Amino acid sequence: MNYWLLLIKLNGIYDILCGLCLLLDIIPEIQYFHLQLFNNISEYNKNILSSFILIWGFMRIFSSDKIILIISYIIEILYLLYIFYYLDTNHSKILITISLSILFIFIILLKIR
C-alpha cells in the first residue's frame, strides 16, 4: 500500500473517531480538537459537525479512488467555509484546517496512483 494512501486512511480513522466522540459525547480530549474551531456551538451544530466528520471519514476509509478522496476533502472545505461565514468560529483555526485539506488534495493528486 502506498504510504500516502495509508496517511489518508489514518486521517479517515481519526475523523470517524472524532465524529463518534462528538455524536456520543464521549472522550472530551478528542472532541476538543474539533470544538476549538467554534467560539460557541449549539448541540444542533455539534450533531451536524459530527455527521459531516463521519461522512468524509467513511469516504476516506472505504475508497481508494482519487476522485472520491478529493471529493471528501472538498466537502470538508465547503463545510468549513460555511461555518467560517455563518457561525461564531475561530477563523484562524478554520483557515489552518482548510489549508491542511488543500494539502491533502495535493498529496492525492501528486502521490497517489
Walkthrough of the structure:
The chain is mostly helical and 113 residues long. The protein has one domain. 81% of the residues lie in helices and 0% in strands. It has helices at 3-24, 28-35, 43-62, 66-86, 91-111. Helix 3 (43-62) runs antiparallel to helix 4. The relative contact order is 0.17.
Layout: helices, strands, pairs:
Elements (H helix, E strand, L loop, with lengths): L2 H22 L3 H8 L7 H20 L3 H21 L4 H21 L2
Helix pairs in contact: 1-2, 1-3, 3-4, 4-5
Task: Throw out a few tags for this protein.
113 residues, mainly alpha, globular
Domain unit count: 1
Please give the largest β-sheet. Answer: none
Structural class: mainly alpha
Q: How many strand units?
A: 0
Tell me the overall shape: globular
Q: Uncertain segments of ≥5 residues (pLDDT<50)?
A: none
Write a concise synopsis of the structure shown.
The chain has helices spanning 3-24, 28-35, 43-62, 66-86, 91-111. The protein is mainly α and 113 residues long.
